[in-house]
Specification:
Layout (H helix, E strand, L loop, with lengths): L1 H4 L20 H21 L9 H19 L1 H5 L4 H21 L3 H7 L2 H12 L2 H10 L2 H15 L2 H9 L1 H23 L13 H21 L6 H5 L8 H32 L2 H4 L3 H8 L2
Length: about 300
């Protein structure tokens, strides 16, 4: 704690040397590096025959998602989360609403499978790929009801004051919180985006109430933090003040940023899906001649 506080000016309203607060968590780095290596290997292999399904922008999205994941876990945002609720909520926002949709937009299923070494594929083929339980588990995790309930339960549950305070007592519990946020959000955005080669489980219009429902719950939590009138998390009331924000103003700022940022992320795809559904099918789908030309590329 003292080492972190030392990088701040006592008289300044903002930190003076945030770059010194970057960390290097080994386990997240190893996981991200492994995902990156496997995805790149599989993407270049699969793209030889799947150019239309794996354009360069999907690669860019996946790489950006991993980059944001690393920023959330290793940047000064992580160093500040013990002192500022506003910084902590930015971290949660990245873990739930930035990194997961970008990773899902990368259509990771085929690249990750193609990127695995053949020895690993042979090892997993019988117990995993050919077993009924694995397919049933996959269908459960990507079911809209499960994804909605899991993500919002994690989001609301971990922000209950008693649960939130637990993350200050144990780094492992804090890591578990982050893992819950990230994995449940991947499932949530999987339902919304339906990355290739995922088949639709429900009609496309159902993604609109799916997103609006999540935004409504986000509004409830954000408004609670913004208008509570008292500090809900005792750890932030007792934390050293490294900015000019009081604990209550910090909480109001955190609730406001959650309200605005998460609503933008939820409402933007809802609007895009609405416009897509209202667009005549003749304009949405290329003509037969256009499809033929695209297939020859």
């Amino acid at each position: 704690m003292h080492a972190l506080l030392a990088i701040f000016d006592a008289d300044a309203a903002l930190p003076s040397n945030l770059w010194a607060a970057w960390s290097f968590p080994i386990v997240p780095f190893a996981g991200i590096a492994l995902l990156l290596a496997v995805y790149l290997r599989g993407w270049f292999a699969a793209r030889r025959t799947r150019t239309n399904e794996l354009p360069a922008w999907r690669l860019a999205c996946f790489l950006s998602g991993l980059a944001f994941l690393w920023i959330a876990l290793a940047s000064p945002i992580d160093a500040l989360d013990d002192y500022l609720l506003a910084a902590h909520m930015i971290q949660h926002f990245i873990l739930m609403s930035i990194a997961p949709p970008l990773i899902v937009l990368g259509a990771p299923t085929v690249p990750l499978l193609r990127g695995l070494p053949r020895s690993v594929i042979r090892l997993l083929s019988r117990p995993l790929f050919r077993s009924g339980w694995a397919h049933r588990l996959g269908r459960l995790l990507t079911h809209p009801v499960f994804a909605f309930v899991a993500m919002n339960t994690a989001y609301l549950g971990w922000h209950v004051p008693a649960m939130f305070e637990l993350t200050f007592r144990s780094e492992r519990i804090h890591d578990l919180e982050h893992l819950c946020f990230f994995l449940t959000s991947v499932a949530f955005w999987w339902v919304v985006i339906e990355p290739w080669p995922t088949a639709s489980r429900w009609p496309r219009w159902t993604a609109i109430p799916f997103l609006l429902g999540a935004d409504l719950l986000n509004t409830v939590l954000s408004a609670t933090l913004t208008f509570a009138g008292r500090v809900l998390y005792p750890s932030y009331a007792a934390a050293p003040r490294i900015t000019s924000l009081t604990p209550l103003k910090d909480q109001v700022a955190a609730g406001s940023e959650m309200w605005v940022l998460n609503s933008l992320v939820m409402l933007a795809p809802a609007v895009l899906i609405t416009l897509q559904l209202l667009t005549p099918r003749a304009l949405r789908e290329p003509s037969g001649r256009a499809r033929e030309l695209m297939s020859r590329r």
